[in-house]
Amino acid sequence: MIRFDPHSSWKALDQRAQTETNPQRKALTIQVRDHVEHEIKGNLDKLMNTLTAQPIYHFWGNGNPMVIEGWQAVHEFYNNMIAGGANQFQIVLDNIIADEKHLVTEGQVRQVYRGSALVAMGVQNAGKSAIKNDGLYLSETQLVTVWPADPDGKLIGEDIYFGEQPLSSLTPIDQSELPTYYKLI
After folding, report:
1. Cβ atoms within 10 A of the Cβ of 78, count?
2. What is the CATH number of the domain that holds 95?
3. pLDDT digits over 3-37, tens only?
4. How many distinct structural domains can be found in the chain?
């Protein structure tokens, strides 16, 4: 049984776009949907094409607020993310709220980590159990993302709010619970 499926991440956005009657909100929902798909699949050029020429990203609530500003900085951020396999996450959306200039998504973000990578980051335990170097672990974190758009429908960036520390909830996961397209890095 697969319980981690990054390619299901844009399904809720597809469904919302199909039922949206306002043309601007529909276009913005499709733009966010495309952004999520290209990010998770690692299509860097198509991903960057969803953004304005001067995107800005804010990451909040994870203890270390971070800002990434400008096309080159955002491009480098995504390039590094894709090269390290960190773009292979799953978003499970509970809520999508839209107006003509913003889309807000709320749900959980899930990510798989090798035990050895967690230990290298200083994480020693998953719950009450010690991390095993050869194990795989699934994290799940509450996430709210605000997606502002310019008048042409390009994404200005993302304002990302974490509900808790991203590695505070780790559970073991078996490779059989991963889709065949998932690449362990």
Report:
1. 21
2. 3.10.450.50
3. 899 999 999 999 999 999 999 999 999 999 999 99
4. 1
